[in-house]
Structures are given as C-alpha cells and as structure tokens.
Amino acid sequence: MEVAVLDITGKDTGRKVELSSDVFGIAPNDHAIYLDVKQYLANQRQGTHKSKERAEIAGSTRKIKKQKGTGTARAGSIKSGVFRGGGRMFGPRPRSYSFKLNKNLKRLARKSALSIQANDNNLVVVEDFNFDSPKTKHFVDVLKALDLGARKSLFVLGSDNANVYLSSRNLKNSKVINASEINTYGVLNASKIVITESSLEEINTNLSK
Predict the structure, then answer these.
(1) Which of 112, 144, 147, 199 is a Cys-bridge partner for 179, taking CB atoms 3.0 to 4.6 Å apart?
(2) Which element (helix H / strand E) includes 194?
(3) Average pLDDT by consecutive 10-residue portion of the chain (209 residues)?
(4) Helical H runs in the chain?
(5) Domains contained in the chain, number
(6) For 110, which DSSP code?
C-alpha cells in the first residue's frame, strides 16, 4: 500500500512511502485485539480498593446473646457483617489486575489495529518535524493543517522529541508517542494516526518479527 508523504502544513511533498503488508495489511485478529486491550486497561487499574472486614472493626468482643434458646440465629460478635456497623463480608482487597500475554499475541494485536486503521484510511504519513521550542500553538497549527481539529489523534515519532511532546501535552485529544510505545488501545482509540517517516522503519522492525 502506497501512501503520500505530507509536510506539517498539510501539503503533498510529492513523495510516497510503501506500507508493509505484513504490518499494515493483515487480516485483523479480533480476539488478539480484545486480549491486548483488556491487558492495557487492567494495567491502568491501581487496585488499591479496600474495605474493613470484621477483624479490623473496632467494637466489643463479647458474645452478644446466648447460643441457644433465643429462637433466632446464633451470633457471637457485634462486628459480624450481618449487623449494622459490622465489617464487610468478602469485601475488596488490594490486588494487581495485571496478567501476562505472550509477545507474539501482542505483536499480532498491534498489527491488527494498524491494519484496521490503514484499511479505513485513517493513517497519515508526514515528514519528520521538530519545533524550536515547546509551544502548544505550534502543535495546534499542525493539527489544523492536517485537518484534525478536535478529533482524537495519535502522533507516532521516530525518536524522543521533547519539544513536540511538550507542545501537545495540554491537548486532551492528541497524544504523542515514540514508535516503540505503540499499543493496541492507543491505535484504536484515535480517529487519525499520524506517523512520521522515520518511525515507519522502527514500526516495521518491531512488528515484523
């Protein structure tokens, strides 16, 4: 698949690049995408939820009524979860929600996500660019030139670019990452994927294994 290369003003440079069919042209695997997105969202959870159980509640330890003869259920502690003010039964405890996926499956999921976006013509390739200083206005001008506006966009750069990253940080609908940071959720969550020329080679290298 050939894609025209644009500059940051949105004009065609007259050059084209070939998108690898092994990365941008495969038949998407929906289950791999599901698992990779599920892992990504699970890793965002802090897992710090906690409620007090009966052993952690402050209260009397005496047996509140005799064992037999009351005609009601036996009860040994006011801190039981069946009483108001008692501990919570089977409440949440701090834990990690993360789980493991093998590298081949994650690679397949990311190629599937890129292929979906490429098939929907949501990929834009631009020549490498930089800013002299971090300024949100510069990045907004790039968004306008590429006709992105307020749409969700993901910019994939070939290397660390502090000025471009800092210029985009105030914009909630735009995100800037390096080619090595591509993930399935980020690719599918964006309306447009803007890829710089230098990042294409790294994407192909990382995902064509």
Answers:
(1) 199
(2) strand 192-196
(3) 87 89 93 97 96 93 93 93 93 95 95 94 91 91 89 89 90 92 94 92 85
(4) 21-24, 30-43, 103-119, 136-145, 162-168, 184-189, 197-207
(5) 2
(6) H
Q: What is the pLDDT of residue 84?
A: 92
Same domain flag for 172 and 133? yes
The CA angle 16-7-5, to the nearest 5 degrees, is 10
Whether 34 and 130 share a structural domain = yes
Helix-, strand-, coil-residue percentages of the chain, each rounded to 5: 35, 15, 50
Domain boundary among 91, 120, 146: 91
In which residue are the tokens 């500059």 written?
A: 7
User: Do the Cβ atoms of 32 and 168 come closer than 8 Å?
Assistant: no
pLDDT of residue 209: 67
Across 11-38, b (16+ Cβ under 10 Å) vs e yields: eeeeeeeebbeebbebeebeebbebbbe
Pairing of strands 12-18, 153-157: unpaired
What single-letter DSSP state applies at residue 77?
A: -
* pLDDT score for 128: 87
Q: State the residue range of the domain holding 82.
A: 51-91
Pick the last residue of a domain from 91, 122, 145: 91
Specify the residue for token string 């190629």: 111
C-alpha span between 5 and 99 (Å, rounded):
39
